[in-house]
Specification:
Length: 615
């Protein structure tokens, strides 16, 4: 009878096997690096070996036992994943926090009913939002600016409602966007050129813009010719799908409204704000809406107002409105602008342009006006905060010529330079060295991403979201005219960095991922999430976050999730039940680093189709 092996021999063999596996992975990692370098003569052999030996998912090193997390880390990934069902056809364009039926139960005063009203836990959907039949991948930029497939957003009402204003036209199986708008029916280019005669758009001084009541975002679409990036918003209202059309065109936009709560942006974010017949009552509520624009406008920034009531004396007949009504509207706007100490730079035809002063010293009357200064010590704190009729103080300046909050370099220079919010030390615990190291690290990460997803910056992905953006270094590393990134800073993050994102010439928004994002389904081509699921441990369910990612991701869109391996194992299991194809990949520094990357692709399917299995 064969002798019984002792326990010590088993442990030795187990340890030796582990050493061999790790050694082989390291060897083939180095072999792969040599093969990619272009200097090896065994490229074909190395490629075959790499395909046969998959070290992208590390062996089970008993993480479950020794490194338990709070995310149900005891996951047997070999068990069958829960398969999420498709939602019904009526939910094709479901926007959970801007649901039309729920909105009608809220007060209409100050547009409260058009603001975010998210469903309670028991009303959340736990199914996959289907794409409409015939859905196709949007055209690549810049063709997408002018054409949107009809099947992707099959709503013709605007083609009738805005026919004379050249917003949108229906032609066969596509919508065509001629570039017109209510204030510029002959096209956005000529209108923007008129603004650019006053506002410096050519030299990078003006890089970020806010478009309030954007329609189908033609202003933002054509601003990109001048390398200006606009954050556009409009409510989900009777103008059906206007924000959806904007995003289908490849233009940044969110569902939003100036109502009772602050805009979800930091103070001093935008170089320019714009309203073209946006129907916002600027003089109402003691100027509260203009004061909110002032909060998010940087010192030296511009506010453009075109349409009623500007220059009412010569326009009132064309507008078919009483002279007295228009006169009173403009009087109130001029009065609030004076209280804010904005300088009027231009008024001609139906356009007026004001400029915000550089600092408090350049307008001593601002702090002495009848308006109260806002009491909040943190003007960046905006998430679900009540809007107030108060003036946001300037940051301190040391001289009358100094820009309050620090002078910002023109774009693209400021993309990689140190923002004033960092150099001034105004963000606790963040040094210049920390920021520069983060910038360097994300260049390295993106380079590694491109080795796996070789089309990352090819133009295939136009609308990109970074769900936990930090300083915006991921967006900076992939910055290109072919794409734009919505940099989301979670409201529960340890530090608020969205102000830094804007000072780099990028755009973004505050959001809490325990709730749905303010967008339509299928509006992003690629979603990136760094440390997001670890951040939200014990805050909300990973399943809810993944379902929201699926809602806003286009069919055949990509996902990159970076996190701890035990967290990613659960995420991978959930994702496999969501009609995603997934692949877990080692950190670029090797298999022994606990942080891993999960790459995923959402499979193409439309309403009425059954799920198919995947790995």
């Amino acid at each position: 009878m064969a002798p019984r092996p002792n326990a010590g021999d088993g442990k030795t063999r187990g340890s030796m096997s582990l050493v061999i596996v790790v050694g082989l992975c390291c060897f083939f990692y180095l072999l792969g690096a040599w093969q990619r370098s272009g200097y090896g003569k065994g490229d074909r052999i190395a490629e075959q070996v790499t395909q046969l030996t998959d070290c992208s998912v590390i062996p089970n090193l008993e993480f479950e036992t020794h490194n338990k997390g709070n995310f149900d880390a005891a996951v047997d990934d070999s068990s069958k994943a829960t398969q999420f069902e498709s939602c019904s056809a009526e939910h094709i364009d479901y926007t959970p926090c801007q649901d039309q039926r729920r909105a009608m139960t809220f007060p209409r005063e100050n547009m409260n009913y058009r603001e975010r009203h998210c469903p309670p836990e028991e009303e959340k959907l736990h199914c996959l939002i289907p794409a409409p039949k015939g859905y196709v991948t949007p055209f690549p930029w810049p063709k997408s600016r002018d054409y949107v497939p009809y099947a992707n957003a099959p709503y013709k009402s605007l083609t009738v409602e805005k026919a004379v204003q050249n917003w949108i036209q229906y032609e066969g199986d596509v919508f065509r966007f001629p570039g017109g708008g209510t204030q510029f029916p002959q096209g956005a280019d000529a209108y923007i050129d008129q603004l650019a005669a006053v506002i410096p758009m050519e030299n990078g001084t003006v890089r970020t813009a806010l478009d309030t009541g954007c329609g189908v975002a033609s202003w933002g679409a054509y601003l990109m010719k001048k390398n200006v990036l606009a954050m556009s918003f409009a409510p989900r209202d009777s103008h059906e799908a206007q924000v959806q059309f904007a995003l289908e065109r490849g233009v940044p936009a969110v569902i939003g409204v100036l109502g009772t709560i602050k805009l979800p942006y930091p103070s001093r974010a935008f170089d320019m704000a714009h309203c073209s017949r946006c129907l916002i009552p600027w003089g109402a509520n003691d100027g509260m809406y203009m004061m909110e624009v002032d909060r998010v406008l940087r010192p030296g920034g511009y506010w453009v107002l075109s349409g009623p009531p500007i220059n009412w004396k010569i326009n009132y007949e064309a507008w078919q409105r009483p002279r007295e009504e228009l006169q009173e509207e403009q009087r109130k706007i001029e009065e609030v602008a004076k209280r804010l100490c904005w300088e009027k730079k231009y008024e001609k035809a139906e356009i007026a342009i004001w400029q915000k002063r550089m600092n408090a010293d350049s307008c001593p009357g601002r702090s002495n006006s009848r308006d109260s200064m806002c009491e909040s010590t943190n003007p960046d704190d905006a998430w679900y905060k009540k809007m107030e009729a108060c003036i946001t103080p300037y940051p301190e300046a040391n001289s009358p010529d100094e820009v309050a909050g620090g002078e910002i370099k023109p774009f693209p220079e400021k993309l990689d330079s140190v923002p004033p919010r960092i150099s001034s030390g105004s963000i606790s615990g963040v040094s210049v060295e920390t920021y520069l190291e983060d910038n360097k690290l994300w260049k390295k990460h993106v380079k590694a991403y491109k080795r796996v997803n070789k089309i990352l910056d090819s133009g295939r992905y136009r609308n990109i979201m970074d769900m936990n953006a930090g300083f915006g270094s991921f967006a900076a590393a992939i910055e290109s005219p072919k794409l734009w990134v919505m940099n989301v800073v979670p409201t529960i993050a340890d530090i608020s960095t969205l102000g830094v994102v804007y000072q780099r010439g990028l755009i973004g928004i505050y959001h809490d991922w325990c709730e749905a994002f303010s967008t339509y389904p299928r509006t992003y081509d690629l979603i990136h999430a760094n440390g997001l699921f670890t951040l939200y441990k014990n805050k909300c369910n990973a399943e809810d976050i993944l379902l929201e990612m699926d809602r806003i991701l286009r069919p055949e869109g990509g996902v990159i999730i970076r996190d701890e391996v035990d967290v990613l194992m659960k995420v991978k299991k959930l994702a496999n039940g969501m009609r995603w194809n997934t692949k877990l990949v080692d950190h670029e520094d090797g298999p022994l680093v606990r942080e891993k990357i999960l790459f995923a692709v959402k499979r193409y399917w439309v309403v009425g189709e059954n799920s198919t299995s995947s790995t």
